[in-house]
Amino acid sequence: MNDIINLKNLKYSYKKNSPVLDIENLNVKEGEKLFLYGPSGCGKTTFLSILSGILPAYDGSLKIFNTEFIGLKPSLRDQLRGSEMGYIFQLFNLIPYLNVLDNILLPCKISPLRRKNLSLQELKEKCVELANNLKIGKILNKKVTEISIGQQQRVAAARALIGFPKLIIADEPTSSLDADNREQFLKNLFDQCESQNTTLIFVSHDKDLKKFFSNHIYLPEINRVKS
Length: 227
Ligand SMILES: Nc1ncnc2c1ncn2[C@@H]1O[C@H](COP(=O)(O)OP(=O)(O)OP(=O)(O)O)[C@@H](O)[C@H]1O
Fold this sequence. Notes:
This protein is of the alpha/beta class. 35% of the residues lie in helices and 25% in strands. Residues 5-227 form the ABC transporter domain.
């Protein structure tokens, strides 16, 4: 299996002489489901922001989809993020004035490349299929302010998965769920990632989730900056 992420000697700091991340090596294979965990403040969100190209790391090498991200123009990082990455946020970040269907379709409206040459009708059909698989098929016309937290979370997952991104980055998406719903959500997410051959990087401070993943990394162990 090919590597989707190759990282070497990656360094990041928000302020001069105050490093947050210094990671020697990390490789993630295509289709892998990686659990990245560590205590509050150890740099998890910072790391995800670098992987998704929102924050620019200043040193080392970070190849994603065989493209070197360090030194890459911000517009090209944005383009790759829009077309090939899905992000599930801790607080979901759904758009309150859009219904469920339009929230899910949003990445394809923002990034034409994310449509992968599908027509709007084909995208809507894909959206219905995804929603049915995630058990939100019956609420596509509802406002996102009128659905439960568990449903909002599955809408956020569907929005990340639409348009067959190569990589899904999930930042603590299960923190507001009880244990049963958490496990069900993970199962649904895994099934969808497997059916699309999408790589998953799932971040949490909750090490109980580790048992669901075959690959896991404790961030403080690979980060040479000690918090
Ligand atoms: N915008 C910022 N400016 C300056 N320092 C920041 C900024 N964001 C985070 N930091 C610092 O970087 C370090 C890592 O923060 P980060 O948010 O990545 O940790 P985390 O592991 O995601 O924490 P949590 O689990 O609480 O979300 C912390 O010391 C934090 O104070």
